Protein backbone atom coordinates (compact mmCIF):
# COMPACT_ATOMS: atom_id res chain seq x y z
CA UNK A 1 0.00 0.00 0.00
CA UNK A 2 1.52 3.37 -0.98
CA UNK A 3 2.01 6.05 1.64
CA UNK A 4 -0.70 8.18 -0.01
CA UNK A 5 -3.22 5.31 0.00
CA UNK A 6 -2.32 4.42 3.57
CA UNK A 7 -3.07 7.96 4.76
CA UNK A 8 -6.27 8.44 2.79
CA UNK A 9 -8.62 6.55 5.13
CA UNK A 10 -7.10 8.41 8.08
CA UNK A 11 -7.64 11.76 6.38
CA UNK A 12 -11.24 10.79 5.67
CA UNK A 13 -11.72 9.84 9.30
CA UNK A 14 -10.06 13.11 10.28
CA UNK A 15 -12.50 15.03 8.14
CA UNK A 16 -15.32 13.46 10.07
CA UNK A 17 -13.53 14.10 13.33
CA UNK A 18 -13.18 17.76 12.47
CA UNK A 19 -16.94 17.94 12.71
CA UNK A 20 -16.57 17.28 16.42
CA UNK A 21 -14.16 20.18 16.83
CA UNK A 22 -16.21 22.60 14.78
CA UNK A 23 -19.42 21.31 16.31
CA UNK A 24 -18.10 22.18 19.74
CA UNK A 25 -17.01 25.58 18.43
CA UNK A 26 -20.39 26.54 17.05
CA UNK A 27 -22.09 25.18 20.15
CA UNK A 28 -20.00 27.52 22.28
CA UNK A 29 -21.10 30.37 20.07
CA UNK A 30 -24.77 29.64 20.54
CA UNK A 31 -25.68 27.76 17.34
CA UNK A 32 -28.55 25.32 18.06
CA UNK A 33 -28.24 21.64 17.13
CA UNK A 34 -31.05 19.43 15.91
CA UNK A 35 -31.59 15.91 17.28
CA UNK A 36 -30.15 14.56 14.02
CA UNK A 37 -27.01 16.66 14.38
CA UNK A 38 -26.64 15.56 18.01
CA UNK A 39 -26.71 11.90 16.91
CA UNK A 40 -24.09 12.65 14.29
CA UNK A 41 -21.77 14.16 16.88
CA UNK A 42 -22.15 11.10 19.12
CA UNK A 43 -21.32 8.87 16.14
CA UNK A 44 -18.18 10.88 15.32
CA UNK A 45 -17.03 10.85 18.93
CA UNK A 46 -17.42 7.07 18.94
CA UNK A 47 -15.43 6.82 15.70
CA UNK A 48 -12.52 8.75 17.19
CA UNK A 49 -12.61 6.51 20.28
CA UNK A 50 -12.56 3.39 18.08
CA UNK A 51 -9.60 4.69 16.06
CA UNK A 52 -7.64 5.45 19.20
CA UNK A 53 -8.48 2.14 20.91
CA UNK A 54 -8.78 -0.40 18.11
CA UNK A 55 -6.96 0.81 14.96
CA UNK A 56 -4.01 -1.45 14.09
CA UNK A 57 -1.40 1.36 14.16
CA UNK A 58 -0.86 4.23 16.54
CA UNK A 59 -2.47 7.34 15.09
CA UNK A 60 -2.04 10.94 16.20
CA UNK A 61 -5.70 11.93 15.86
CA UNK A 62 -4.91 15.49 16.97
CA UNK A 63 -2.64 16.08 13.97
CA UNK A 64 -5.25 14.58 11.63
CA UNK A 65 -7.91 16.91 13.04
CA UNK A 66 -5.56 19.90 12.71
CA UNK A 67 -4.86 19.05 9.08
CA UNK A 68 -8.53 18.51 8.32
CA UNK A 69 -9.67 21.73 9.98
CA UNK A 70 -7.17 23.57 7.79
CA UNK A 71 -8.57 21.83 4.73
CA UNK A 72 -12.18 22.65 5.66
CA UNK A 73 -11.41 26.33 6.25
CA UNK A 74 -9.55 26.59 2.94
CA UNK A 75 -12.80 25.68 1.18
CA UNK A 76 -14.57 28.72 2.65
CA UNK A 77 -12.46 31.72 1.60
CA UNK A 78 -8.75 32.58 1.43
CA UNK A 79 -8.65 34.31 4.82
CA UNK A 80 -10.45 31.91 7.16
CA UNK A 81 -7.54 30.11 8.81
CA UNK A 82 -6.69 27.71 11.60
CA UNK A 83 -4.10 28.72 14.22
CA UNK A 84 -2.55 25.65 15.83
CA UNK A 85 -1.64 25.51 19.49
CA UNK A 86 2.07 25.71 18.64
CA UNK A 87 1.56 28.88 16.56
CA UNK A 88 -0.94 30.58 18.84
CA UNK A 89 1.43 32.27 21.32
CA UNK A 90 3.55 33.79 18.56
CA UNK A 91 0.47 35.10 16.73
CA UNK A 92 -0.86 36.56 19.98
CA UNK A 93 2.44 38.30 20.71
CA UNK A 94 2.48 39.94 17.29
CA UNK A 95 -1.08 41.19 17.64
CA UNK A 96 -0.64 42.19 21.28
CA UNK A 97 2.36 44.32 20.27
CA UNK A 98 4.84 42.89 22.76
CA UNK A 99 6.53 39.73 24.00
CA UNK A 100 8.44 38.71 27.12
CA UNK A 101 12.19 38.37 26.66
CA UNK A 102 15.52 40.17 27.00
CA UNK A 103 15.07 42.36 23.90
CA UNK A 104 17.93 42.08 21.41
CA UNK A 105 18.46 41.91 17.66
CA UNK A 106 21.17 39.37 17.02
CA UNK A 107 23.07 37.37 14.41
CA UNK A 108 24.65 33.95 14.76
CA UNK A 109 28.16 34.86 13.62
CA UNK A 110 30.78 32.12 13.34
CA UNK A 111 28.55 29.97 15.57
CA UNK A 112 28.42 32.68 18.25
CA UNK A 113 25.45 34.83 19.26
CA UNK A 114 26.40 38.42 18.45
CA UNK A 115 24.22 41.36 19.52
CA UNK A 116 23.41 43.61 16.54
CA UNK A 117 21.73 46.07 18.90
CA UNK A 118 19.57 45.95 22.03
CA UNK A 119 16.00 47.07 21.48
CA UNK A 120 15.64 50.63 22.85
CA UNK A 121 14.20 50.67 26.34
CA UNK A 122 14.17 46.87 26.57
CA UNK A 123 15.68 44.74 29.36
CA UNK A 124 19.06 44.27 27.63
CA UNK A 125 19.34 47.96 26.86
CA UNK A 126 18.65 48.79 30.53
CA UNK A 127 21.17 46.16 31.65
CA UNK A 128 23.93 47.76 29.54
CA UNK A 129 24.36 45.32 26.65
CA UNK A 130 25.94 46.96 23.60
CA UNK A 131 26.09 46.30 19.85
CA UNK A 132 28.83 43.80 19.12
CA UNK A 133 28.61 41.97 22.47
CA UNK A 134 28.86 38.16 22.25
CA UNK A 135 26.61 36.12 24.52
CA UNK A 136 28.70 33.07 25.37
CA UNK A 137 26.50 31.38 27.97
CA UNK A 138 22.85 31.63 28.99
CA UNK A 139 21.90 29.98 32.28
CA UNK A 140 25.32 28.22 32.20
CA UNK A 141 24.48 26.65 28.84
CA UNK A 142 27.23 27.19 26.26
CA UNK A 143 25.91 28.99 23.16
CA UNK A 144 29.06 29.14 21.01
CA UNK A 145 30.38 26.28 18.85
CA UNK A 146 27.28 24.22 19.60
CA UNK A 147 25.37 24.52 16.32
CA UNK A 148 22.26 25.52 18.26
CA UNK A 149 19.12 26.27 16.30
CA UNK A 150 17.46 29.65 16.53
CA UNK A 151 14.53 28.03 18.39
CA UNK A 152 16.90 26.57 20.98
CA UNK A 153 18.49 29.97 21.59
CA UNK A 154 15.11 31.69 21.87
CA UNK A 155 13.93 29.08 24.39
CA UNK A 156 16.99 29.76 26.55
CA UNK A 157 16.53 33.54 26.47
CA UNK A 158 12.77 33.81 26.86
CA UNK A 159 10.82 33.16 30.05
CA UNK A 160 8.24 34.64 32.37
CA UNK A 161 8.24 38.37 33.08
CA UNK A 162 10.41 39.22 36.09
CA UNK A 163 12.55 36.08 35.94
CA UNK A 164 16.31 36.58 35.62
CA UNK A 165 18.48 35.50 32.70
CA UNK A 166 22.10 34.97 33.76
CA UNK A 167 24.40 35.63 30.81
CA UNK A 168 28.14 35.50 30.29
CA UNK A 169 29.13 38.14 27.74
CA UNK A 170 32.32 38.92 25.84
CA UNK A 171 32.82 42.57 24.83
CA UNK A 172 35.27 42.88 21.95
CA UNK A 173 35.85 46.62 22.38
CA UNK A 174 37.30 46.09 25.88
CA UNK A 175 38.47 42.48 25.37
CA UNK A 176 36.71 41.50 28.59
CA UNK A 177 34.27 38.78 29.62
CA UNK A 178 31.70 39.53 32.30
CA UNK A 179 28.48 38.22 33.84
CA UNK A 180 25.23 40.15 33.59
CA UNK A 181 21.82 39.36 35.05
CA UNK A 182 18.89 40.60 32.97
CA UNK A 183 15.34 40.69 34.28
CA UNK A 184 13.08 39.46 31.50
CA UNK A 185 10.29 41.86 30.71
CA UNK A 186 7.81 43.11 28.16
CA UNK A 187 9.59 43.98 24.93
CA UNK A 188 7.51 46.15 22.58
CA UNK A 189 6.96 44.99 19.01
CA UNK A 190 6.55 48.34 17.32
CA UNK A 191 3.85 48.65 14.70
CA UNK A 192 4.79 52.27 13.98
CA UNK A 193 8.33 52.11 12.62
CA UNK A 194 8.94 55.84 12.65
CA UNK A 195 7.30 59.26 12.95
CA UNK A 196 9.66 61.92 11.57
CA UNK A 197 9.72 65.24 9.74
CA UNK A 198 10.99 64.82 6.19
CA UNK A 199 11.04 68.55 5.51
CA UNK A 200 10.09 71.73 7.32
CA UNK A 201 6.36 71.26 6.67
CA UNK A 202 5.86 67.52 6.22
CA UNK A 203 5.57 64.66 8.71
CA UNK A 204 5.97 60.99 7.81
CA UNK A 205 4.54 58.03 9.74
CA UNK A 206 5.21 54.42 8.74
CA UNK A 207 2.87 51.70 10.07
CA UNK A 208 3.84 48.06 9.48
CA UNK A 209 0.70 46.35 10.89
CA UNK A 210 -2.38 47.01 13.02
CA UNK A 211 -2.01 45.55 16.51
CA UNK A 212 -3.42 46.39 19.95
CA UNK A 213 -0.83 49.15 20.44
CA UNK A 214 -0.96 50.69 16.95
CA UNK A 215 -3.31 53.57 17.64
CA UNK A 216 -1.50 54.73 20.78
CA UNK A 217 1.83 54.53 18.89
CA UNK A 218 0.33 56.46 15.97
CA UNK A 219 -1.30 59.07 18.20
CA UNK A 220 1.96 59.70 20.08
CA UNK A 221 3.87 60.02 16.80
CA UNK A 222 1.33 62.35 15.21
CA UNK A 223 1.11 64.54 18.32
CA UNK A 224 4.91 64.83 18.36
CA UNK A 225 4.90 65.91 14.72
CA UNK A 226 2.12 68.42 15.34
CA UNK A 227 4.19 69.86 18.18
CA UNK A 228 6.98 70.29 15.63
CA UNK A 229 4.69 72.38 13.42
CA UNK A 230 3.86 70.08 10.48
CA UNK A 231 1.16 71.21 8.03
CA UNK A 232 0.96 68.02 5.98
CA UNK A 233 1.39 64.31 6.61
CA UNK A 234 2.49 61.26 4.65
CA UNK A 235 0.99 58.05 6.06
CA UNK A 236 2.91 55.05 4.72
CA UNK A 237 0.88 51.82 4.60
CA UNK A 238 3.04 50.02 2.04
CA UNK A 239 3.68 46.33 2.82
CA UNK A 240 1.12 46.58 5.65
CA UNK A 241 -1.01 43.45 5.42
CA UNK A 242 -3.51 44.59 8.03
CA UNK A 243 -4.45 43.22 11.44
CA UNK A 244 -7.08 44.53 13.81
CA UNK A 245 -9.81 46.71 12.30
CA UNK A 246 -10.36 48.95 15.35
CA UNK A 247 -7.01 50.83 15.28
CA UNK A 248 -7.48 51.45 11.55
CA UNK A 249 -10.88 53.00 12.29
CA UNK A 250 -9.38 55.12 15.08
CA UNK A 251 -6.65 56.39 12.75
CA UNK A 252 -9.13 57.20 9.98
CA UNK A 253 -11.22 59.04 12.57
CA UNK A 254 -8.26 61.36 13.25
CA UNK A 255 -8.35 62.49 9.61
CA UNK A 256 -12.08 62.90 8.96
CA UNK A 257 -14.75 65.41 9.92
CA UNK A 258 -17.57 64.38 12.22
CA UNK A 259 -20.29 62.14 10.76
CA UNK A 260 -18.25 61.16 7.68
CA UNK A 261 -18.45 57.42 7.05
CA UNK A 262 -15.29 55.40 7.74
CA UNK A 263 -16.47 51.88 6.88
CA UNK A 264 -19.57 49.71 6.53
CA UNK A 265 -19.75 46.02 7.49
CA UNK A 266 -22.40 43.47 6.54
CA UNK A 267 -22.68 40.06 8.23
CA UNK A 268 -24.32 36.80 7.18
CA UNK A 269 -27.76 37.94 8.35
CA UNK A 270 -27.51 41.13 6.32
CA UNK A 271 -27.07 43.33 9.36
CA UNK A 272 -25.31 46.55 8.35
CA UNK A 273 -23.05 48.43 10.73
CA UNK A 274 -21.96 51.92 9.66
CA UNK A 275 -19.00 53.46 11.50
CA UNK A 276 -18.68 57.24 11.31
CA UNK A 277 -16.04 59.75 12.36
CA UNK A 278 -16.46 61.41 15.75
CA UNK A 279 -15.36 65.00 15.03
CA UNK A 280 -12.51 64.59 17.57
CA UNK A 281 -9.71 64.03 15.09
CA UNK A 282 -6.13 65.24 15.57
CA UNK A 283 -5.53 65.99 11.87
CA UNK A 284 -8.88 66.67 10.14
CA UNK A 285 -8.09 69.46 7.69
CA UNK A 286 -4.42 69.57 6.77
CA UNK A 287 -2.92 68.04 3.63
CA UNK A 288 -2.74 64.24 3.71
CA UNK A 289 -1.10 61.63 1.49
CA UNK A 290 -1.55 57.87 1.98
CA UNK A 291 1.02 55.52 0.41
CA UNK A 292 -0.13 52.04 -0.65
CA UNK A 293 1.19 49.22 -2.80
CA UNK A 294 0.23 45.73 -3.89
CA UNK A 295 0.87 44.33 -0.38
CA UNK A 296 -1.27 46.89 1.48
CA UNK A 297 -4.29 44.91 2.63
CA UNK A 298 -7.30 44.72 4.91
CA UNK A 299 -7.10 47.40 7.64
CA UNK A 300 -4.72 49.39 5.43
CA UNK A 301 -7.38 49.39 2.72
CA UNK A 302 -10.04 50.53 5.20
CA UNK A 303 -8.01 53.69 5.83
CA UNK A 304 -7.18 54.24 2.15
CA UNK A 305 -10.82 53.67 1.13
CA UNK A 306 -12.15 56.06 3.76
CA UNK A 307 -9.70 58.79 2.78
CA UNK A 308 -10.36 58.34 -0.94
CA UNK A 309 -14.15 58.10 -0.83
CA UNK A 310 -14.46 61.15 1.42
CA UNK A 311 -12.06 63.10 -0.84
CA UNK A 312 -10.00 63.78 2.27
CA UNK A 313 -6.51 63.21 0.88
CA UNK A 314 -4.47 61.79 -1.98
CA UNK A 315 -3.81 58.05 -2.33
CA UNK A 316 -0.38 57.51 -3.89
CA UNK A 317 1.22 54.30 -5.13
CA UNK A 318 -0.06 51.11 -6.76
CA UNK A 319 -3.30 49.14 -6.53
CA UNK A 320 -3.67 47.57 -3.10
CA UNK A 321 -4.10 43.86 -2.36
CA UNK A 322 -7.89 43.61 -2.35
CA UNK A 323 -9.06 42.10 0.96
CA UNK A 324 -12.58 43.11 1.95
CA UNK A 325 -13.38 40.33 4.41
CA UNK A 326 -13.55 40.68 8.20
CA UNK A 327 -12.34 37.88 10.48
CA UNK A 328 -12.97 37.10 14.14
CA UNK A 329 -10.56 35.01 16.17
CA UNK A 330 -12.41 32.27 18.05
CA UNK A 331 -10.91 29.75 20.43
CA UNK A 332 -11.39 26.00 20.12
CA UNK A 333 -10.68 25.16 23.76
CA UNK A 334 -7.39 23.28 23.36
CA UNK A 335 -5.05 26.25 22.88
CA UNK A 336 -5.80 26.53 19.17
CA UNK A 337 -8.14 28.93 17.38
CA UNK A 338 -9.81 29.71 14.09
CA UNK A 339 -9.81 33.07 12.40
CA UNK A 340 -13.20 32.91 10.72
CA UNK A 341 -14.63 35.35 8.18
CA UNK A 342 -17.79 36.78 9.74
CA UNK A 343 -18.55 39.85 7.61
CA UNK A 344 -17.68 41.81 4.50
CA UNK A 345 -16.66 45.43 4.67
CA UNK A 346 -17.44 48.21 2.24
CA UNK A 347 -15.86 51.62 1.75
CA UNK A 348 -18.00 54.75 2.36
CA UNK A 349 -19.12 54.85 -1.30
CA UNK A 350 -20.41 51.28 -0.96
CA UNK A 351 -17.73 49.40 -2.87
CA UNK A 352 -16.31 46.04 -1.88
CA UNK A 353 -12.61 45.94 -2.66
CA UNK A 354 -12.35 42.16 -2.16
CA UNK A 355 -10.74 40.56 -5.19
CA UNK A 356 -12.47 37.44 -6.59
CA UNK A 357 -11.63 34.03 -5.11
CA UNK A 358 -14.09 31.79 -6.97
CA UNK A 359 -11.31 30.19 -9.02
CA UNK A 360 -9.60 28.61 -6.03
CA UNK A 361 -6.80 29.37 -3.62
CA UNK A 362 -3.95 28.82 -6.08
CA UNK A 363 -5.34 31.35 -8.53
CA UNK A 364 -6.06 33.79 -5.70
CA UNK A 365 -2.52 33.54 -4.38
CA UNK A 366 -1.00 33.98 -7.84
CA UNK A 367 -2.68 37.39 -8.26
CA UNK A 368 0.51 39.32 -7.46
CA UNK A 369 2.62 37.40 -9.95
CA UNK A 370 -0.14 37.93 -12.53
CA UNK A 371 -0.01 41.69 -11.89
CA UNK A 372 3.74 41.60 -12.38
CA UNK A 373 3.46 39.66 -15.66
CA UNK A 374 0.73 41.93 -16.98
CA UNK A 375 2.87 45.00 -16.39
CA UNK A 376 0.41 46.52 -13.91
CA UNK A 377 3.18 47.27 -11.40
CA UNK A 378 4.85 49.44 -14.04
CA UNK A 379 1.88 51.08 -15.79
CA UNK A 380 -1.50 52.25 -14.52
CA UNK A 381 -2.96 51.59 -17.99
CA UNK A 382 -2.52 47.86 -17.31
CA UNK A 383 -5.03 47.94 -14.43
CA UNK A 384 -8.32 46.44 -15.64
CA UNK A 385 -11.42 46.51 -13.44
CA UNK A 386 -15.01 46.03 -14.57
CA UNK A 387 -16.97 49.16 -15.51
CA UNK A 388 -19.90 47.67 -13.59
CA UNK A 389 -17.91 48.22 -10.38
CA UNK A 390 -17.77 52.02 -10.72
CA UNK A 391 -18.60 54.09 -7.65
CA UNK A 392 -18.37 57.79 -6.85
CA UNK A 393 -16.66 59.72 -4.09
CA UNK A 394 -18.31 62.55 -2.13
CA UNK A 395 -17.19 65.01 -4.84
CA UNK A 396 -18.27 62.75 -7.71
CA UNK A 397 -14.91 61.27 -8.70
CA UNK A 398 -15.10 57.75 -10.17
CA UNK A 399 -13.50 54.98 -8.11
CA UNK A 400 -13.58 51.21 -8.60
CA UNK A 401 -14.45 48.20 -6.47
CA UNK A 402 -13.75 44.55 -7.06
CA UNK A 403 -10.03 44.35 -6.47
CA UNK A 404 -8.19 46.69 -4.12
CA UNK A 405 -7.88 50.46 -3.95
CA UNK A 406 -6.65 52.06 -7.18
CA UNK A 407 -4.51 55.07 -6.19
CA UNK A 408 -5.28 58.63 -7.24
CA UNK A 409 -1.64 59.06 -8.24
CA UNK A 410 0.10 56.01 -9.70
CA UNK A 411 3.80 55.39 -8.98
CA UNK A 412 5.41 52.39 -10.72
CA UNK A 413 8.03 50.12 -9.24
CA UNK A 414 11.31 52.00 -9.08
CA UNK A 415 13.38 49.53 -11.06
CA UNK A 416 13.10 47.77 -14.37
CA UNK A 417 12.26 44.07 -14.20
CA UNK A 418 15.88 42.89 -14.11
CA UNK A 419 16.92 45.40 -11.45
CA UNK A 420 14.42 44.36 -8.80
CA UNK A 421 16.65 41.43 -7.84
CA UNK A 422 19.44 43.83 -6.84
CA UNK A 423 17.20 45.76 -4.47
CA UNK A 424 15.91 42.54 -2.93
CA UNK A 425 19.46 41.21 -2.60
CA UNK A 426 20.57 44.29 -0.67
CA UNK A 427 17.82 43.68 1.90
CA UNK A 428 18.69 40.03 2.57
CA UNK A 429 20.39 38.52 5.61
CA UNK A 430 23.39 37.78 3.37
CA UNK A 431 24.15 41.51 3.15
CA UNK A 432 23.05 42.18 6.75
CA UNK A 433 25.52 39.60 8.11
CA UNK A 434 28.29 40.95 5.90
CA UNK A 435 27.72 44.54 7.05
CA UNK A 436 27.75 43.44 10.69
CA UNK A 437 31.13 41.75 10.19
CA UNK A 438 32.51 44.88 8.53
CA UNK A 439 31.22 47.11 11.33
CA UNK A 440 32.95 44.87 13.85
CA UNK A 441 36.31 45.58 12.17
CA UNK A 442 36.00 49.34 12.63
CA UNK A 443 33.18 49.86 15.14
CA UNK A 444 35.21 52.26 17.30
CA UNK A 445 35.65 54.60 14.32
CA UNK A 446 32.18 54.24 12.76
CA UNK A 447 30.24 54.84 15.97
CA UNK A 448 31.79 58.31 16.24
CA UNK A 449 30.48 59.37 12.82
CA UNK A 450 27.19 61.07 12.03
CA UNK A 451 25.02 59.34 9.39
CA UNK A 452 26.15 61.94 6.84
CA UNK A 453 29.83 61.35 7.65
CA UNK A 454 29.28 57.59 7.50
CA UNK A 455 27.72 57.87 4.04
CA UNK A 456 30.62 60.01 2.79
CA UNK A 457 33.12 57.49 4.12
CA UNK A 458 31.43 54.55 2.37
CA UNK A 459 30.84 56.37 -0.93
CA UNK A 460 34.35 57.82 -1.11
CA UNK A 461 36.29 54.66 -0.30
CA UNK A 462 36.21 52.04 -3.11
CA UNK A 463 37.02 49.23 -0.67
CA UNK A 464 33.42 49.07 0.57
CA UNK A 465 32.01 48.31 -2.88
CA UNK A 466 34.89 46.05 -3.93
CA UNK A 467 34.82 43.99 -0.75
CA UNK A 468 31.05 43.56 -1.01
CA UNK A 469 31.45 42.34 -4.60
CA UNK A 470 34.06 39.82 -3.50
CA UNK A 471 31.85 38.64 -0.65
CA UNK A 472 28.82 38.13 -2.91
CA UNK A 473 30.95 36.33 -5.50
CA UNK A 474 32.26 33.99 -2.79
CA UNK A 475 28.65 33.33 -1.82
CA UNK A 476 27.92 32.17 -5.38
CA UNK A 477 26.18 35.29 -6.70
CA UNK A 478 27.29 36.26 -10.19
CA UNK A 479 25.36 39.49 -10.81
CA UNK A 480 27.12 42.17 -12.84
CA UNK A 481 27.22 44.51 -9.86
CA UNK A 482 29.15 47.28 -11.60
CA UNK A 483 26.07 48.09 -13.70
CA UNK A 484 24.09 48.67 -10.50
CA UNK A 485 26.77 50.37 -8.41
CA UNK A 486 24.73 53.47 -7.49
CA UNK A 487 21.79 51.38 -6.30
CA UNK A 488 24.03 49.00 -4.40
CA UNK A 489 25.94 51.76 -2.65
CA UNK A 490 22.72 53.48 -1.58
CA UNK A 491 21.32 50.34 0.02
CA UNK A 492 24.70 49.39 1.46
CA UNK A 493 24.80 52.71 3.32
CA UNK A 494 21.19 52.10 4.41
CA UNK A 495 22.20 48.81 6.06
CA UNK A 496 25.13 50.46 7.85
CA UNK A 497 22.81 53.23 9.07
CA UNK A 498 20.23 50.70 10.25
CA UNK A 499 22.77 48.75 12.32
CA UNK A 500 24.61 51.75 13.75
CA UNK A 501 21.75 54.17 14.48
CA UNK A 502 18.03 54.13 15.21
CA UNK A 503 15.02 53.59 12.95
CA UNK A 504 14.53 57.32 12.48
CA UNK A 505 18.03 57.69 11.01
CA UNK A 506 17.38 54.73 8.72
CA UNK A 507 14.16 56.25 7.34
CA UNK A 508 15.75 59.67 6.92
CA UNK A 509 18.30 57.96 4.68
CA UNK A 510 16.05 55.56 2.75
CA UNK A 511 13.34 58.12 1.96
CA UNK A 512 15.78 60.30 0.04
CA UNK A 513 15.39 58.06 -3.01
CA UNK A 514 11.84 56.86 -2.42
CA UNK A 515 9.88 57.24 -5.69
CA UNK A 516 6.57 57.89 -3.91
CA UNK A 517 8.05 60.63 -1.73
CA UNK A 518 9.65 62.13 -4.82
CA UNK A 519 6.28 62.01 -6.59
CA UNK A 520 4.58 63.80 -3.68
CA UNK A 521 7.20 66.54 -3.91
CA UNK A 522 6.08 67.21 -7.50
CA UNK A 523 2.43 67.53 -6.40
CA UNK A 524 3.00 70.24 -3.81
TrEMBL record:
SMART domains: PDZ, TSPc. InterPro entries: ClpP/crotonase-like_dom_sf, PDZ, PDZ_sf, Peptidase_S41A, Tail-specific_protease. Coiled coil: none annotated. It comes from the Bacteria. Residues 88-172 form the PDZ domain. The keyword Membrane applies. The chain crosses the membrane at residues 6-27. Keywords: Hydrolase, Membrane, Protease, Serine protease, Transmembrane, Transmembrane helix. NCBIfam families: prc. Belongs to the peptidase S41A family. This is S41 family peptidase. The lineage of its organism: Bacteria, Pseudomonadati, Bacteroidota, Flavobacteriia, Flavobacteriales.
Amino acid sequence: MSKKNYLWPLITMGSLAAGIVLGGFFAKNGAPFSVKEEKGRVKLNKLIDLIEQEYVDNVDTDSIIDMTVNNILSQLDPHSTYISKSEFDEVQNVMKGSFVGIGINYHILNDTLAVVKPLPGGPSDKAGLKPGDRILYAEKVQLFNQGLSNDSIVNLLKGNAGTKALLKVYRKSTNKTFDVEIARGEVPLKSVDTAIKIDSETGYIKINRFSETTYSEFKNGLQSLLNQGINELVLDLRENGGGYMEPAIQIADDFLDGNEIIVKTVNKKGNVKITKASNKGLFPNKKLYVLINENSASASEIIAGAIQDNDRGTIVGRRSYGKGLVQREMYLGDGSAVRLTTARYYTPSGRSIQKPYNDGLDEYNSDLSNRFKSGELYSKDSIHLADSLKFKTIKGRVVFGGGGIVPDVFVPLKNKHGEDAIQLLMKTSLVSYYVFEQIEKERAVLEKLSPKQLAERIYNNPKYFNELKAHLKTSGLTFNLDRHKNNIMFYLVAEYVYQLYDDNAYYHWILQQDPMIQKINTLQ
